[in-house]
Every structure is written in structure tokens, then in C-alpha cells.
Amino acid sequence: VRTVEPQVHALTGAYVCHALSADEERDFELHLAQCPDCAMEVAELRETAALLAMEAVQAPPRRMHAAVLATINLTRQLPPLTTAPVTRPMAASAPSSFSSSSEEQQLPSNVVPIEQARSRRGASDHANRVGRFSRVAIAGWAVAAALAGVVGGLSVHSAVQDRQISQADSRATQISALISASDVRIGVAKVTGGGSATVVESRARGQAAITLSGLAALPAGKAYQLWFMSTGDTRSAAVVTASAAKSGTQVLADDLGDTASVAITVEPAGGSARPTTAPVMLMSLPT
Amino acid sequence: VPSTAGPEQAVLVEALSLVARGDREAFDRVYREMAGAVFGLARRVLRDPALAEEVAQEVMVDVWRTASRFDQAKGSPRAWILTIAHRRAVDRVRSEQAAHDRETKVAARSNEIEYDEVSETVEARLEAQRVRHCLGGLTDLQRESVTLAYYSGYTYPQVAELLQAPLGTVKSRMRDGLTRMRDCLGVGR
Q1: Best mutation site among A57, A121, A133, A179 for testing chain B: the one with the most B CBs within 10 Å?
Q2: A65 and B61 in contact (C-beta within 8 Å)?
Q3: Minimal CA–CA distance to A18: which of A31, A6, A28?
Q4: What pairs with residue A202 in β-bridges?
Q5: pTM of the entire predicted model
């Protein structure tokens, strides 16, 4: 039985073509939620529109493949939607620096989500919805953590975890800004002994994010050290423990300056003033 | 459930469920299957190759990020991915930043560009032919309403202005045109 007002129903085509104003679209989506006929028609017309796109197929630039693969290495995936997020506090939206179990390793700790919203209407409708859900999930998780704290007498945990969340949020914002910089460049290099380093850098912002993942274990008392090298100057960018470099970690540096290459060496655990061994990774960043 | 379920869509359903679990090889399969359509659509809507590349890149990262939210009960992987792509391309067209972005991007990336090899299968070529054939079966007003909205990213009031036609007429021609395309292409039948 169709109880649909013809006026609203007639919007399916324009909706599928993203040809409605933001207001009309929102109204139509409210209607869509209560109109199975419309939802069915929208689904069919979406399949149809997708075939229209097949008429436009064109080979993408080759470098896009590498850039996408490098970016997903920095991009945390959204957890699936569940009906009971609060009862499943360890959903993947938790900042994983807390967990070091091996099943977490393919989502390296400290890898943060890249926020979508570049402009208020910039993201896809899907991604917008998803973005909202992910915040809900984080809130739900914090609540669950607080509850767990009360039950187990460990209330300090929720405060720590909240701080971890806000740190992850602020880093996500910075990295999102970095990746959308007009002069952003992305490089991926293998590290001697195993693993890889991904460097995302912008001269305009003077920033670089370096992600290490899968690096080899080191003898006790040794660590990986990152260096920024420019003509006549080599300075330490960070010291990273072998376990963090194995499971995955990210360094965000604000002082890129005129750095011409990034290097990694193995140094004593506290770090050295200058590199004392041959680099296990050297990536040049031509200016 | 509407579906244009070719075997490649079933393969993509399987691949997306692996991608949702962090499988990079499965993501690579999705990339190889869909990057051409995503980039081509962005290129058609945006024209500018550098902007299209940027948008296509964002779309493929979105696919990685949100794979767990793909629901095959709601449509094919192709429709899901290309809906994201069309939305992003259209948003970019409408953002006031576009003109400014274009200048800086072209300046920053004007080196010679290597393109992936065109993996234009016979299947894909037939599909494109079918689409052109079905577009040819629409009335002029239906066809122009659909293509100006979908391929050029115009809103329906802009389409009405371009075609000198009343708003309500353009709205229903978009729907009629797509419905006729649906039937001609055999979607969901």
C-alpha cells in the first residue's frame, strides 16, 4: 500500500544523484527511514547510477595506488556497529596503547583515525553517519570503562583512558590537517631487518608524521632512533623502543625545518647525541 | 534486494568482509577492481585530474576505513563505493575552495604523470556500451536531467535553470530517466 506523498517520492532520482540541497536531503532521509517503498527504489536507482559510473571508467595515476596504501597504514578502521556497544568495552575504538596482545598487532597501537570532516559537508553521507557513530562508540566505551572501574575499584582507569582518548583525538586532528595539506608527500621505505617506515610530510606546515610498523626486535638495552638530517646538521627526532616499533607506533614532529632526509639507526636505549651505527632506513625528502 | 550481481560483485563482497578485518591484500583486490571507476567518475564530475586524483584517493581510504559498515543487504559493493565517490566528488565541486585548490594542486603536481595500465576488460566495455545504448533510449529532457546531475554534479534547481524547465518537471525527469535506465539495464529485476 502506497501512502507516500507523490511530491516526496518523486525526489528519489534527485536524491540518488546528490542533486538536492542539504535541507531537502535531510528531510528526504527522514522520510526514507519510514518508507520501505522509497528505500527500495533508492537502492535500485543507486545500482543504476553505479552503472552510469562504469561508463566513465578511467585508469588512475599509478602513484595513487602507493599513496592510498601508505595512507591506510596511518588510518584506523571503524569498528562494526553493534547493538550493545556498552557491554563490549574492548571494541576497536579503544585507544590500543593499552593492549599489547598479539591480535592487536595488525592495527598498530598509536595509529589514529584520520578524521573525515575536512569541510562541514565534505564527507560522504555514509562517512558522516559513520563519524557520528564512532564518537558515540567512544563515549560508550568511556562509560563502560567507568562502570568497570567502579565495580573493580579501579576508578583511576577511566580518567587515564579519557585522557588517552583526548590525546588520540588531538593527534588525529593534527594528522588529518597534515594529510590534507596542499604540499603533502608520502613515502614508504623498508627497514633493514624487517618492517617499514611511512613518512607523511608537509613543508608548508613544517610537520612530519612517521609510522613504524613490524620492525625487528632488538637486544636488551637497544632502541630505534629517528633522525632528521639536513646539510651539515643531524638531530634526533625520537627514540622508539623495539617493542613499539614492532607492534606499530607513530611519531608526529613539528620541527621538520629544512630536513633533507629521515634516517633510523639502532642506538643504546636512551638514545645517542649523534648516530653511532649505519642507518637501517634512509629516506630522502628532496626539497 | 536489488543487485546487478555479477560474479565480480560476489568477489567484492567477500573481499570487503576481509578488508573490515584489516586484510591489506583483500583491500588491494578491491582497489584494483574499483579504482578505475572511482577515479573515472571523479574525473567526469570534477574535470580537473589533480582534484579527481585527490578525491579518488580519499574515497579509497574511506573504503578501507568504513568497510565494516558495508551491508550487502542494502546493495552491491559497487553501488556502495560509487555512492561514496559521487558524494565526495559533488561536494568538492560545490565547495568554494575548489577554484583555489585547483591552482595550488596543479602547481604542486605538474610533473609528468604515469597512469595505471588501462585494464579495460571486454566485460567493462560491454557494460559501458549498454549504458550508452540505454541513455539513448531516454527522452532528451530525461537524459539531460540525469547526465547534468550525475556526470556534471549540478543540483536540480541548477539543472532546471540550464534546461529552462520548471523545477518539478526536472525533479520527475530525473526519477523517470533513472527508472527507465534501471529497467533497460535490468537492475533488480
Answers
A1: A57
A2: no
A3: A28
A4: A207
A5: 0.59
